[in-house]
Predict the 3D structure of the following.
Amino acid sequence: MAAFGTPELMTSWGRVARQRAARARPAFLDEVASLIGQARDTTLLGIGLGRSYGDSGLNAGGNVLDMTALDQVIAFDPKTGIIRAEAGLTLNALLRIAVPRGWFLPTTPGTRFVTLGGAVANDVHGKNHHTAGTIGVSIRRIGLHRSDVGAIELSPDTNAEVFRATIGGLGLTGLIAWVELQLVPIGSAYLDAETIPFTGYDAFMALARASTPGFEHTVAWIDCTSSRDGRATRGLFSRANWLDDGDLAAHDDRTHATLPLELPAMAINPISLKAFNALYFVAGSRKQGRQRTHYAPFFYPLDAIQNWNRAYGSKGFYQYQCVVPYAAADLAIPAMLGEIARSGQGSCLAVLKTFGAKTSPGMLSFPREGVTLALDFPNRKTRTIELFDRLDSVVAEARGRLYPAKDGRMPATMFCKGFPLLDAFSQHVDPRFQSDFWRRMSQ
Ligand SMILES: Cc1cc2nc3c(=O)[nH]c(=O)nc-3n(C[C@H](O)[C@H](O)[C@H](O)COP(=O)(O)OP(=O)(O)OC[C@H]3O[C@@H](n4cnc5c(N)ncnc54)[C@H](O)[C@@H]3O)c2cc1C
């Protein structure tokens, strides 16, 4: 029978936020109710594989329910593509079951090492947001355990408001025990993927607009060092559609390499950053054109290196991801790119993408129609926080918002302004569920 252990140190993916909490790792669904019933004087939080960058998966001084051993498929109908599984099932494991049978996730984040529960709690999005929306659009039912009312079932018709609060609800409405999801049919595990080098934000937008009707997946890597005024930033635009050649080989489960040690903090500095980005751009430009590409390198390039988050050294790193509406993006995105280039900070992991109009049921869902910018920053303490403050001003002025899954420092005012359904959401927060992120936002 699972029980909470003594408090242990837990670290977020960005490795800046670290806190102690007592962990229990149930192996059977019927253990969950009694664990929630234990230790009534402490707070609780469900956690998955810890791929959130900031403090949304931490609960300092409280208890956490680690769901990674609850990873069984409860039901899968290969005729309809409807799958019901325990919340700890990883997207990695789900794909190995679904792909050979001709099904894929309706949308996927840039790593397959996340759990179903974590994917729902952050209402994750992927390269097909402009056609498919977030994962919340395809969730049919959720099994939720609350500390006040026990186990309940949620769907668009049953406990509908709690359903909407739980999708993108940052684990605060209770513990997600299982999820029922509609998969999408595929005729191949391969995509017809095209890479197009571009220079300038206007060129990026022209490519995004031209690709929206005909391409299911679009995204651009950008060289964040390349333009001090942010107008001439160069990058590699990638767009793809599934092939239909009947080759349904799932990915190889083994990762290719492991970063064994933390790199020294100085390994990423303005000079190495500029050089690496330039090399990456040149190498990517050489590969321009169309290529038959398996879904694993297309959707999950970083999964090829285990523990890549150690590359930023012992101080860790932040990710900054914002979305700004189209009406303001033409000014806001170049302004941010200019700030970042002039600061000499940033990394080689920088992405621009357009979000479409399909809305999620999730009350706190991050994506909205517009342009999203996401990039990692090694933690240079005050210098980095001051840069984020300047970026925040641009995002706030543009009436945009930041992604809580990636955040470890946004001011509460920014969160309140960015998420207009926050008050409605707050009514469904479980009285015992808490996170460091939520405490920070509630101050
Ligand atoms: C390399 C990389 C690429 C990424 N790319 C994308 C991307 O393209 N798009 C995107 O949207 N996100 C992306 N992410 C973020 C990632 O998809 C989310 O942070 C995801 O939620 C992590 O899932 P997890 O299982 O690790 O959950 P954790 O990080 O452990 O937890 C995330 C949240 O879910 C809650 N939670 C987890 N399990 C449960 C449960 N069973 N019940 C209740 N609450 C629960 C936690 O309390 C926490 O609030 C990326 C992350 C990485 C590291």
